[in-house]
Specification:
The protein is α+β, with helices and mostly antiparallel strands and about 150 residues long. It has one domain (about 5-150): Roll (Mannose-Binding Protein A, Chain A). The protein has helices spanning about 40-50, 60-70; strands spanning about 5, 20-25, 30-35, 50-55, 80-85, 90-95, 110, 110-115, 125, 135, 145-150. The longest helix is centred in the middle third of the chain and has 13 residues, at about 60-70.
């Protein structure tokens, strides 16, 4: 995977650029927003930037993303673009594709494999307390978000 850091002067957000990091992983232009909100609020925040919540569909991409978060000292929980809202029992990305289950993506919580929230926890986040492995949560919880643009143009 190719990683390219973009200068903050390329920040495309109507907010100030503090609290925002932008970088390339492969063909994905990633923007990390530190502001916090519900899954729906952060989905809107990504869309206002012309992006969508990140889709993590390979172990290589996840590894590179987590390394980049660690290198930039990001220590938040991050919403990603997966949910089971509207298709109970099956987690899907925003483009409708099924989310891969099990390792190396989902974490273990109190001895049980995530997702383990049943009907109440239907949105997916990267859990800072579990090495950024995924977990399901109430969509009304307040976390930061990782957004993405496809390609190098944004």
């Amino acid at each position: 995977m190719r990683l390219v850091l973009l200068p903050l002067s390329l920040c495309l957000l109507p907010l100030s650029c503090s609290g925002v990091t932008q970088f390339l992983i492969g063909n994905k232009n990633i923007i990390v927003l530190e502001q916090q909100g519900t899954w729906d609020q952060m989905n809107i925040a990504c869309r206002r930037k012309g992006a969508h919540m990140v889709k993590i569909d390979s172990a290589d991409f996840m590894h590179t993303l987590v390394n980049q978060l660690n290198q930039n000292n990001y220590n938040h929980n991050y919403w990603i673009g997966a949910t089971e809202v509207g298709h109970e029992g099956i987690f899907r990305w925003q483009d409708g594709t099924k989310v891969k289950m099990g390792t190396p993506f989902w974490g273990i919580h109190q001895g049980a494999q995530e997702p383990n929230g049943g009907d109440l926890e239907t949105c997916v986040f990267m859990n800072k307390n579990n090495f950024m492995y995924w977990a399901d949560a109430h969509c009304t919880d307040r976390f930061s978000v990782i957004c993405e643009f496809q390609g190098t143009e944004s």
